[in-house]
Amino acid sequence: MVVVAAVDRSDHAKQVVKQGETLAKQFDDELHILHIISRSEFRNLQRENIDRNDEAIDMESIREFAAKQAEKAAEDIEGPYETVGRVGDASSDVVSYAKKHAARYIVIGGRKRSPAGKAVFGSTAQSILLNSESPVISIIKDES
């Protein structure tokens, strides 16, 4: 089985990866660190590269860029891991990746940002929580 740590490009991603590493060690599972670039972000990167170099970026290069973002989130961990970069819809791709790899857990980031101090999940986190067949752990970052 695997533990999937789904990360964005924030500093909070390192905490998500650290928790994923802890779970993977506890269960002797593989750790997969997943970063997904949205299709709109992909198009923006395409435009920027065309403006700069007069050539398009191929999909594999964008996936490698996404995997490098996952790698950055993993710079503080010691154990083995695999980084995965994808282009698509973050919530559905995290859920389908976890299902395909029989994930024991999915670890995601979240923010505490309601006036009452309760965790309020963004649409991506909420969609993962509602649609995943695997247990989801949300590492809450206090926004106060």
> What low-confidence regions span 5 or more consecutive residues with pLDDT below 50?
none
Globally, the shape reads globular
The ordered string of helix (H) and strand (E) elements is: EHEHHEHEEHE
Number of strands: 6
How much beta, percentage-wise? 25-35%
Mean pLDDT metric: 89
CATH topology name: Rossmann fold
**Helix residue percentage:** 40-55%
Q: Give the number of helices.
A: 5
* Separation, N- and C-terminal Cα atoms: 36 Å
Q: What does the largest sheet look like?
A: 6 strands, mixed
Rg value: 16 Å
Structural class: alpha/beta
Total domain units: 1
Instruction: Please tell me the CATH architecture by its name.
Output: 3-Layer(aba) Sandwich
Under the CATH scheme, which class? Alpha Beta
Going by CATH, the homologous superfamily would be: HUPs
Protein name: UspA domain protein
InterPro entries: Rossmann-like_a/b/a_fold, UspA
Keywords: Plasmid
Family: Belongs to the universal stress protein A family.
Outline the structure in words.
The protein has 144 residues and is an alpha/beta fold. The chain has a single domain (2-142), classed as HUPs (Rossmann fold, 3-Layer(aba) Sandwich). The chain has helices at residues 13-27, 39-53, 59-73, 90-100, 123-131; strands at residues 2-7, 30-37, 82-87, 103-112, 119-120, 136-142. Strands 1, 2, 3, 4, 5 and 6 form a six-stranded mixed beta sheet that branches. Strand 4 (103-112) and strand 5 form a beta hairpin. The longest helix has 15 residues, at 13-27. It is globular and about 50 Å long. InterPro entries: Rossmann-like_a/b/a_fold, UspA. This is UspA domain protein. Keywords: Plasmid. Belongs to the universal stress protein A family. It comes from Halalkalicoccus jeotgali (strain DSM 18796 / CECT 7217 / JCM 14584 / KCTC 4019 / B3).
